[in-house]
Amino acid sequence: MLDEFLLLAIAHLFAVASPGADFAVVLKNTLRAGKTAGIMTAVGVGFGILVHVGYTLLGVSLILSKSELLFNIIKFSGATYLIWLAFKSFQSRKSNEDKSEKAVEIEISSPSAAKQGFIVNVLNPKVTIFFVALFASTVSPQTPLWMQVIYGAWLSLYTMIWFIFVAWAFSRKRVLSWYQTHGYLIDWGMGIVLLIIAIRLII
């Protein structure tokens, strides 16, 4: 079981570190609203992983992988939400005010940030495919259910830890100081990234 867990952990480590929709939304909220918003977005992403683990263990993932209709519903729902987030990013404008001594003006409540992270993760069909492939190819049918639950809990926890680190790293004073002047460029850049991800999901 240790070898099985290590394979899961290593594969998941590389998957989480690869930039995607989760990374984009955590980075966007951190730069726009600060560390707390970024951390709560990371928590939401982590809980989203539990949803994927849950339906994988229940076998629903096999149904999704076989049903083109259900898969497309998830795919287009996720793409639509990413497009909406991109639209919100494109609304950012250059500020003419001197904010050198001010905190980031934009406010995102903790529940709202967590909800964004959760929805982006749950509605990402790439994550669905990843978990179906990961568990099917790595976890033995003889592995007890309680052990598989532990696997899932670890994957969720590690995801939270990684994206909390991302939020912390991008909330440093130098980064925020630069963002207060040039943040609209980052917002537009994140909007473009989210839009590209959404288009890739659709096609």
How many discrete domains?
Answer: 1
Mean pLDDT level: 78
Total strands: the figure is: 0
Helix-strand sequence: HHHHHHHHH
Poorly predicted segments: 98-105
State the helical fraction. over 70%
Count of DSSP helices? 9
How are the SSEs placed, and which strands pair?
Elements: H1 2-17, H2 21-33, H3 35-58, H4 60-66, H5 68-90, H6 110-122, H7 125-138, H8 145-169, H9 173-202
Helix pairs in contact: 1-8, 2-3, 2-6, 2-8, 2-9, 3-6, 3-7, 3-8, 4-7, 5-9
Structure report:
- This protein is an all-alpha fold.
- It has one domain.
- The protein is built from 9 helices and no strands.
- α1 runs parallel beside α8 and α2 packs antiparallel against α3.
- The longest helix is centred in the last third of the chain and has 30 residues.
- About 4% of the residues have low confidence.
Overview in brief:
The protein is mostly helical and 203 residues long.
Tag the structure with descriptive keywords.
203 residues
